[in-house]
Amino acid sequence: MSTLREYLAQKRRAWLSKQDTIATADVITPTAKVSAEGRSGVRRIRIRDHQVLSDSGPDYAGYDLGPSSPELQLGVLGSCVTHIFLIQAAAADLVLDSVEVEVTATIDPKAGTPGFEDVPPSPQDISYTVQIGSPASDEEIDALFAAVERACPILNLLTNPQTITGTVVRVPAQSEESAR
């Protein structure tokens, strides 16, 4: 099995190659489609040729067939931070032996209920801890961390206010017979 050091050498070659094309690259438009599945209510997330299931626990009539949406959001943040650590380490030609990111948050289930109308329903107090194994100096790791926090798209999405628009499109309802 190869090591993270070997992977970072490969990542550096890819990063260097990509630098040649960035100036002429087209804007990327990522898309995710999500549908609620029949009797289970499982949310099937489709991104490119990939699928991920999201579900709730039994307390929300779910079957615990996958992580909840807030859990996925924490995982997405952790995945992005990890990936950007690898990219920035490759760009700086830093050696890393391991990178592990843990993301935590709190959610108050009373949010929005009587007496708790001002409690936000969203995850709060989001934090992440990065454990790095590396022979690099503390100064190099500090510079790497700063570069990651500048470049991480999901971290910046969550820390900088965004405008999100939504639209509802009505489709024909099923008949009572076909809905059974």
Automatic annotation (TrEMBL):
Coiled coil: none annotated. This is Uncharacterized OsmC-related protein. It comes from Actinokineospora terrae.
